[in-house]
Amino acid sequence: MNLFTRILVLVVLAILASVSLVMMIQVQMPNAAVHGRALGNVRGLGQLVDDAAARGEDVPAAVQRLETLFGFSMKLRPPEQVPAKLVAWLEREGQRSLAIGGLWDTEVYFVLDSRREFLVVGPLPTTKFPALRVLGTTILVGFTVAVLAAWLLVRPLARKFRILVQAATDFSNGRLDTRVECRGSDEIDQVGSAFNEMAARIQALLDKQKHLLQAVSHEFRTPTARIRFDLALLESNRDPGRAPERIDKIERSLDELEELVAELMEYMRFEDGAPPLERQKIDAVTMTRETVAELSSLRGTVELQQQYRDVSGIWVSRRHFRRVVNNLVMNALRYANNTVRVAVVAGPGGVELRVEDDGPGIPEDLRERIFEPFFRLDSSRSRESGGVGLGLALVERIMTWHHGEVRVEDSPLGGAAFITRWPMSYEQGEST
User: Fold this and answer.
1) How many other C-beta atoms can be found within 10 angstroms of the C-beta atom of residue 421?
2) Domain spans of the chain?
3) Does the domain made of 279-430 have the CATH classification 3.30.565.10?
4) pLDDT tens figures, 406-432
């Protein structure tokens, strides 16, 4: 039984209960007693009409006078205007009057002696208390309106529920692009909007996991192939003098795999949800200078320039700030020709960390994709340049969870400029 049917059944049962209640109240004064009292009253009225006719008065005028006096509706009707069954019953039973009652009213038919006509009195109230009549009528009308209102309100809601259930069923069966059309703002539409948002997130997550799995498989294939090739050469025992060289290549490939696994695990921790960020107020200039100093031994012939301005402290996770500086500087050192510049300056709404290089730069149409896991540009920004393809993806995740920003621009040095903006206050870092 669907929702609409259930509500309709409940309303109908309520109506039946109200009618039963009114009828139970009326049982306190049986209809037979009411009809008997009505018959007694009408017989008296009929006698008054017969007396007026015997005195030669105008009978219709007498009936009108009595109607005004007693407040009852009184009419004169010839036999042909009275139901034949009623006339036949009176003749058969030898009666002069008969009360015909409904749920609320009673009409009394009286045969006049003075004329072969019927005096019809009524409708007379059946209930002892007129207020009960009003109450019962009000209940019936009220519940009738309630039925119509429930039907008008519940029918579109039931239809929306069916659409929502069908969408959930389709989505669970693998149709990840299923969405619910929400045209209103009621609770069902809010549920539909929440379903659409959930479905979009799940679809994006599954797509991301699919691409990530494909990328991971591709990244693992190269070092494992090199290891298998070098092991095969070692087993063949050809050119034993180069065995140490081949073992060294295997160790480098294993280091690459280990680095890949470590980066992947770190990235997945960020993908699973916001990690616990132990924010504290740090000096961005001091932290950046220390991190760059640790990387200076890796710069080779590249000039590492540093520019710092006095800036306020920022509320960030110390470990994750160092990770961003490390990843951006390492990325710049891989692709720079001669120069890398690191700067910390005050920016709009926070502190900016800028890392620039004089390398080949990044095309404008690819500046958003470079933050995807394992995405690589062609030419010089390839696997040969080093890295596992997760450094910039981690930077983007860290900035997201710190409610900061990362973007790529052209550098005055001729290459790429990576700019991160960090919130200056704790409240900014906690805002969404």
Assistant:
1) 20
2) 30-126, 187-271, 279-430
3) yes
4) 999 999 999 999 999 998 765 555 554
